[in-house]
Amino acid sequence: MKPQRLILFAAALLAAPVLSSAQSAALKPLNVPAKTLPVPYADISPQMQKIIAAPLNPNWNDQWQTGAQARAFANTQAAGIVKTIPGMLARLHVTVQPTIIGGVKAYIVTPDSIPPENQGKLLIHVHGGCYVLFPGEAGVTEAIMMAGFGHYKVISVDYRMPPEAYFPTALDDAVTVYRQELKTTPAKDIAFFGTSAGGALTLEMVLRARQEGLPMPGAIAPGTPMSDVTLTGDSFYTNEKVDNVLVSRNGFCQAATVIYAHGHNLADPLLSPVYGDMHGFPPAILTTGTRDLLLSNTVRVDRKMLRSGDIAELEVFEGESHAQYQFDDTVPETREAFTEIGTFFGKYLGQ
Amino acid sequence: MKPQRLILFAAALLAAPVLSSAQSAALKPLNVPAKTLPVPYADISPQMQKIIAAPLNPNWNDQWQTGAQARAFANTQAAGIVKTIPGMLARLHVTVQPTIIGGVKAYIVTPDSIPPENQGKLLIHVHGGCYVLFPGEAGVTEAIMMAGFGHYKVISVDYRMPPEAYFPTALDDAVTVYRQELKTTPAKDIAFFGTSAGGALTLEMVLRARQEGLPMPGAIAPGTPMSDVTLTGDSFYTNEKVDNVLVSRNGFCQAATVIYAHGHNLADPLLSPVYGDMHGFPPAILTTGTRDLLLSNTVRVDRKMLRSGDIAELEVFEGESHAQYQFDDTVPETREAFTEIGTFFGKYLGQ
């Protein structure tokens, strides 16, 4: 290496900031007055405007205490979602088949046509829902969107949840599926993806795969990941009662996460993956919105990966709250988000 | 083209959402209660935490009516900034030489060492300041950071401002410099960059270059661009009094922009470039922060470029307000931001 190159290389290493893990008591908080937010409209489809304009999630402050309480809510919600699946399958030209992989329940989600360049590639999907919602087929909607818009075969993991099982069983189940699939598909041809708890599980799967000596997948798409369930991160405050889905850092999603953690330390990187070592992570595409309570959770993972020398791309949608890019397959921005993720996978898988 | 490829190609075209340019009166605004924001600290350097914790800009509500009023403030501010430049030049190993290019005042900003791969490359810098601030040498600080951290030769345009000249003179001057430099440097080896009004001018230069039949530059870095001075965009509301630099969409920066526009329509793409045609734009790297009043201005340009089939990368810094990534060259995140821009230019210039 020539001296000049060496100097630049050293400068690049120095570019990683000296970071803080503690708040200075001397720094004063900022008081922000009450305000009224018009519904944003510029560069936003009319369909997404309606989603953005919805009132605050009426269940935002549900404070479940047990897995059984959370599951009761989840079952009612799931029944409504399952009814929408046949229409979605027809619109997106996708089929879903239940299966068992290494003892783990899963769904094989297949688009009617897979282009030559996507054949032999496999996406493993881990659904969201704060580790307690979307049991069974209700967890498969995002996998259908990905298969339909991205034209890839997807396996959606129906991981066990409270009250059947607690941390780290969801992660165990997802990694079991990966381990099984590695028997027939090279790691470089496999991607992980998911949103919210599924975004966190995507990152946790990479951390756990490395712990277990498994090869890294070819790419990942952690969507608005619950990457820090210690509730650290600026948008937990700035977007409080701005995000109409999660609404508050102390709402239903945190109650659910505490149930899943089952007494385990919330700062463990297998629950708060932003604290994990991300050097050598596979290329990642991260998706969020400007009103997302987890905007900072997403931005911090993107920045940590970049600071670790990884490839990371950040997609931020105007005006959207938590995970709204995957609420409705008929919304133009949903197609856009999954088309971008598919393009990203096409760029990095197989390399 | 095979039928399958044709179908996918058509699907990709359909991925561009049907967008709205009007707000539905039926959609209800959201009332957000008053809140207190702690200073964010996770993954943020202690130096940047202090910048984030600063009280609201005391001049945020200056309502200048004339170019002379704005210039009086700008001159006082500039006198303070100019005193900091010798220290910055010494720290970053950069020299600054005033020059005249095609009749336009400018500064040649040169790092002490330029690596072989950056030789022959040229960055044209347009400073920020709401089209009225940072006259003369006070406008050169960001160019020094870019030269020092990115190791490129930079020309910083000291474009005319009110009260000497009004829209579109700033843009005229910047494009004149580009036209002159094209006589000795191929367009593919030239990048444009700048922050705030400089981010807008970066985009406006591309629009104007195309109008005039000039070739596209090789890359651009519009930092938190004032891309929509009609005050459209969600973060003008969500980050009101959260951003401690601009503070409000109706503050000093809007007053200054109205002075510069001098009666011209603020929705003209040469003042609000988000409304310009961005098909065929050069690869862009955009930088903003989660508290930035212009977060939406930045996100909308990123998304519009992606929807136009361009290459665009978005960098979002945790907790930062408008343009804070270029406030202080001794802050680790400043080095990080300009190192990333330099790496991006290294990837796309010369192609």
**Structure classification of chain A:** alpha/beta
How many strand elements of chain A? 10
Largest interface: A-B, 85 and 86 residues
Count of individual helical segments of chain A: 10
Query: How would you characterize the largest beta sheet of chain A?
Result: 8 strands, mixed
Query: Based on the structure, what is the oligomeric state of the protein chains?
Result: homodimer
| First and last CA, distance of chain A | 27 Å
Spatial order of strands in the largest sheet of chain A: 3-4-6-5-7-8-9-10
Q: What is the CA-based Rg of chain A, rounded?
A: 20 Å
Label the overall shape of chain A. globular
Low-confidence parts of chain A lasting 5 or more residues at pLDDT below 50? 1-16
Query: What is the helix/strand order of chain A?
Result: HEEHHEEEHEHEHEHHEHEH
- Please indicate the percent range of residues of chain A in DSSP E strands (runs of 2 or more): 15-25%
- Average pLDDT of chain A works out at 94
